[in-house]
Amino acid sequence: IAAPLPGVVVDDLAARKTGAWTESSVNQFRAGSGYVHDGNAKGGAAIHFTPDLPSEGEYEVFLLAPANANRASNAPVTVTINGAQAKALKVDLRPEAPGGAISLGRYRLPKGKHTTVSLTNEGADGFVVADGVQFLRQP
């Protein structure tokens, strides 16, 4: 089991999943007791992380995903903030990110459960993996 991470972390076990996801702990993970992957399927799977943020403020959001050469270089991620235009990103899951965390950017987020980070395998060119999402409050 990984050491606790700072900020608010939503583990893959607490996320809402659609489609087929397989639990694994083969590669190094950061949150909880493992991570999930899509079995290199080409569409049909999504995972949604919704934190319960303790306060409104500026947060840097990180996708926690174990790196490997067989990962997608174009994993679709969407950051949805209640009342704002959703931000769509393509994330490269292959290189080792510092601390195993890939920054999805900084956002002004509301208190409570009004933000969702979604990861899908639509059009992905390799395995899509998810360990969790970390929300770090910025000073």
Number of helices: 0
- Please give the alpha-carbon distance between the first and last residues: 29 Å
Based on helices, strands and strand pairing, what is the structural class? Answer: mainly beta
| Series of H and E elements | EEEEEEEEEEEE
Q: Give, in spatial order, the strands making up the sheet with the most strands.
A: 2-5-10-7-8
DSSP strand (E) fraction? 35-45%
Low-confidence residue ranges: none
- Which word captures the global form? globular
Spatial extent as radius of gyration: 14 Å
The main pleated sheet reads as:
5 strands, antiparallel
Q: Overall mean pLDDT score?
A: 92
Number of strands: 12
Helix content: under 10%
What does this structure look like?
The structure is a single chain. The chain has strands at residues 8-11, 16-18, 22-24, 35-37, 46-49, 57-64, 75-81, 87-91, 101-109, 115-120, 129-130, 132-137. By secondary structure, the chain is mainly β. It has no helices and twelve strands. It starts with 7 loop residues before the first strand and ends with a strand. Helices cover 0% and strands 43% of the residues. β7 and β8 (87-91) form a beta hairpin. Strands 2-5-10-7-8 form a five-stranded antiparallel sheet, with no helix packed on it. A four-stranded antiparallel sheet has the order 1-12-6-9, with no helix packed on it. Strands 3-4-11 form a three-stranded antiparallel sheet, with no helix packed on it.
